[in-house]
Specification:
626 residues, alpha/beta, Arc Repressor Mutant, subunit A, Rossmann fold, six-stranded parallel beta sheet, five-stranded antiparallel beta sheet, 20 strands, 46% helix, elongated, disordered C terminus
C-alpha cells in the first residue's frame, strides 16, 4: 500500500529526526539517500540531520538555493512523504520470523517504485513564451526511512520516502518539484511496489494470495494471526463504524480522518529485543502458529504466463473499451489480474515489443486492430458514395413538397439527406438545434417517395424516444445486427440512427456492412462533442474526418431565453468558464444567488442550466428574452 502526505519543514524535522535510532549506521533499518537529484548534490549513504534539515529548507549541502524563488518557510511544501507499507503477513515474516530475505525484497520493491516515480512523474514548472508549462525532469532527491512498527508497537514494515521539493533541469538549474503527477498516479506506484515485492517473494519460495486492487498476503498466514498483529487497523475500523452509525459516508476523506484522529504518538526509542520477545509471547499466548519459512530456492515459474501473454490480455481488455488508452491502463490490468507473476521491467519490455501496439502520444497507445477497424469503417462509407438513388431529384423545391417552416440549417440538412446519392451521410448538431423537427420533415418526404423508415439508436431508451418523436418503428443497433436480414426489400430502406456519437467502432462497422448488404441508406444523427461509447472508438467523428457528407445544425432553438441560449452555445463550444460567468452575472442582476458547480465541466454546467429552466421566466422579464 502507498499513502502520501505533504510536509512542512517543521513537520518533517519533528517526525523523522526525533527517532534517532533510525539514523545511525548500526540501526536495524538505516536511512539512505536515493535519486538522481541526490547523486547530483553529492548526497549518498546514511542521512544525517544537518543535510536533511538543509534540504527541507530548500538548500543544497553547499547552501545553494534549490527553490528557484523566495517562499515563506511556514507556507512552503518542504517535501512529500510517500509511505510504502508491506502487507501484514510480509511484516510478520520479515520482523517476527526475522527472514532477512523478505526485508531485502521490501527494499528492492520500494526502490523500483521510486525509480518509476522519478522517471515518469518528477516534474517542475518553467516559464516559456507560451506561458507556464510543466517539464518532466527525471530526477528526485529522497531520504528513505524504514520503520518496523506501527503506533501500537506491532510489526508493520514500512518505508517513508521523503521526496524533497526540489528537482534539477537539464541545464543544471534547480526548481521546486511539482508533485501533482506523482500523487495522481499514487495507486499505480503502490501497485508497482506490491508487484515487485510479490515477484521477489515468489522467487524465495513464498506463495502469494492475491487480494483486490493489486494487493496480496502470503499464503499460510491465518486471518487470526493477521488480526492479532493488527489492532491499529481494528481501531480505525471501529471509529469508522461509529461515524457511519451517525450518518457519515464511508469515503476516502472519512478513512483518512479516522486514521489521524485515532493516531497515537510514536515512541522515540524502541528496544528491538523487547519487541521481538513480546511478539513471540503474543503468538504463544493466543495459541497461534507461524508457518515454516520456505527454503531459499528460486521458485519455478515455467508454469506462469509470460509477460507477452499478460500484455496481450491487457491490450484486449483495454482495446474493448477505448481506442486510445494509456500505458498505465495496461500496467494496472496486469497488476490487478496477475500480481507477482512478472517483474515490472519484464512487463515494460513486453509493452515495448508488442506488435499490436501503436504509440500515438506520450504514454498513449492505440492498436493495429482498432486502426484497421476504423480504416475499414471509413472505407465502407466511402464505397457507398454515389451508389444509391436520391430520395428526390436534385433541384426539387422542398418547400413545395412539404408544408413545414424550416430555418436555413434545417432546410440544408433535409436537402442534403434527400438529394445526396451517398449511402451514408450525417447530421452533426448540438442539442436543441431542431434535429427532431427536421427529421420529421425528412421522414414525411421519404415516405411519400416510398421509403420504409427504420429508427435505430445505441440504447433502448434512445430508440424509444426516437420512435415516439418520429412515429416510426425503432430498435437498438445491436438488435438490428443480431436479427436476420430480409430476403428481399420490396421498398427502399432509410435507416435513421440517432445518438450516433454513442456508437462504438465495432457496431458502426457492422452496421455499415449490414446496410451495404440490404442496400439501405444510413443517416447518422448526433454530436461529436457528446460522450462517446462505452466500447472503443468514435466512428461518428472518424467518418466525418474521412469525408462523410455532413449537414450541420449548430443554432440552438430550444432555449428561447436569450441569456440561456448564449450560455448553451458557449458550453457547446467548450467555453465552460465563460458560460458560468455569463450565467452568474445574469442571476446576480436578478437578485438571485447562483451556486456554481465545483467541477466546472460541461456536464455540471448543463445540469445547472436545466435546474434554472424553471426560473427562465424571471430572467426573461429582466433581460428581454426572445
Amino acid at each position: 500500500m502507498l499513502s502520501t502526505s505533504n510536509l512542512s519543514a517543521a513537520q518533517a524535522e519533528t517526525y523523522y529526526t526525533h527517532e534517532d535510532y533510525y539514523s545511525s549506521e548500526e540501526a536495524v533499518h538505516p536511512t539512505k539517500w536515493v535519486g538522481k537529484g541526490a547523486a547530483s548534490l553529492g548526497l549518498a549513504g546514511v542521512v544525517n540531520q544537518q543535510e536533511f534539515s538543509q534540504m527541507l529548507s530548500g538548500q543544497a549541502p553547499d547552501e545553494r538555493s534549490l527553490t528557484g524563488k523566495v517562499v515563506d518557510p511556514e507556507k512552503r511544501r518542504a517535501a512529500t512523504d510517500f509511505t510504502f507499507s508491506a502487507p501484514k503477513s510480509v511484516s510478520i515474516a520479515a520482523l517476527v520470523q526475522q527472514d532477512e530475505r523478505v526485508l531485502e525484497a521490501h527494499h528492492q520493491a520500494v526502490a523500483k517504485a521510486l525509480s518509476v516515480l522519478e522517471e515518469r512523474y518528477a516534474q517542475t514548472r518553467v516559464s516559456t513564451e507560451a506561458g507556464r508549462t510543466k517539464v518532466t525532469t527525471g530526477n528526485i532527491t529522497a531520504a528513505v526511512f524504514t520503520h518496523s512498527t506501527s503506533r501500537e508497537a506491532e510489526p508493520q514494515l514500512h518505508s517513508h520516502c521523503v521526496v524533497m521539493n526540489a528537482t534539477q533541469l537539464a541545464d543544471g538549474r534547480w526548481f521546486s518539484l511539482s508533485n501533482e503527477a506523482a500523487i495522481a498516479n499514487q495507486k499505480l506506484l503502490g501497485q508497482v511496489y506490491q508487484n515487485e515485492l510479490a515477484v521477489a517473494l515468489r522467487q524465495q519460495g513464498y506463495r502469494i494470495e492475491p487480494k483486490a486492487h493489486g494487493q496480496f498476503e502470503l499464503a499460510g498466514y491465518s486471518l487470526e494471526l493477521l488480526k492479532a498483529f493488527s489492532t491499529r487497523r481494528q481501531q480505525i475500523l471501529k471509529l469508522i463504524e461509529e461515524w457511519e452509525a451517525t450518518g457519515s459516508n464511508n469515503n476516502r476523506a472519512l478513512r483518512e480522518t479516522a486514521t489521524l484522529v485515532s493516531r497515537k504518538r510514536k515512541p522515540k526509542e524502541v528496544d528491538e529485543g523487547l519487541l521481538q520477545r513480546g511478539w513471540n509471547a503474543l503468538v504463544q499466548l493466543k495459541g497461534l502458529e507461524l508457518p515454516d519459512l520456505p527454503e531459499s530456492i528460486t521458485q519455478a515459474v515455467s508454469d506462469q504466463p509470460s509477460a507477452t501473454s499478460l500484455i496481450d490480455m491487457a491490450i484486449r481488455h483495454c482495446g474493448e473499451r477505448e481506442s486510445v488508452f494509456r500505458r498505465t491502463a495496461l500496467e494496472r490490468f496486469v497488476f490487478e489480474h496477475d500480481l507477482g507473476v512478472q517483474g515490472f521491467e519484464t512487463i515494460e519490455e513486453a509493452i515495448a515489443k508488442s506488435p499490436e501496439l501503436i504509440r500515438v502520444a506520450d504514454g498513449k497507445f492505440t492498436t493495429q486492430t482498432a486502426l484497421s477497424l476504423e480504416l475499414d469503417t471509413i472505407r465502407l462509407m466511402q464505397q457507398g458514395r454515389g451508389q444509391v438513388g436520391k430520395i428526390v431529384p436534385t433541384g426539387t423545391q422542398l418547400n413545395g413538397l412539404v408544408e413545414h417552416s424550416l430555418n436555413p440549417e434545417q432546410q440544408n440538412a433535409v436537402e442534403i439527406a434527400a438529394t445526396t446519392p451517398d449511402g451514408v451521410l450525417a447530421w452533426q448538431g448540438v442539442a436543441g438545434a431542431g434535429k427532431t423537427y427536421a427529421l420529421n420533415v425528412l421522414k414525411e418526404l421519404a415516405q411519400e417517395q416510398g421509403y420504409v423508415i427504420q429508427g435505430l439508436a445505441p440504447s433502448s431508451e434512445a430508440a424509444h424516444v426516437l420512435g415516439e418523436s418520429l412515429g416510426i418503428e425503432t430498435t437498438t443497433v445491436a438488435g438490428l445486427l443480431v436479427s436476420d436480414p430480409p430476403d428481399q426489400a420490396i421498398q427502399p430502406p432509410l435507416w435513421i440512427v440517432d445518438e450516433a456519437g454513442l456508437l462504438s467502432m465495432k457496431d458502426a462497422h457492422a452496421l455499415l456492412r449490414r446496410a451495404s448488404l440490404e442496400q439501405a441508406r444510413v443517416l447518422l444523427v448526433g454530436d461529436t462533442r457528446q460522450l462517446s461509447a462505452v466500447e472503443a472508438g468514435n466512428p461518428f467523428k472518424s467518418l466525418q474526418a474521412g469525408g462523410m457528407t455532413t449537414a450541420y445544425l449548430e443554432t440552438h432553438r430550444r432555449q428561447q431565453n436569450g441569456v440561456l441560449r448564449s450560455v448553451v452555445e458557449l458550453v457547446s463550444q467548450g467555453q465552460i468558464l465563460e458560460s458560468i460567468e455569463l450565467l452568474s452575472q445574469t442571476m446576480v442582476c436578478q437578485g438571485s444567488r447562483l451556486q456554481v458547480p465545483r467541477r466546472r465541466n460541461s456536464a455540471g454546467c448543463c445540469r445547472l442550466i436545466l435546474a434554472l429552466d424553471g426560473r427562465a421566466a424571471g430572467i426573461n422579464a429582466g433581460v428581454g428574452g426572445n
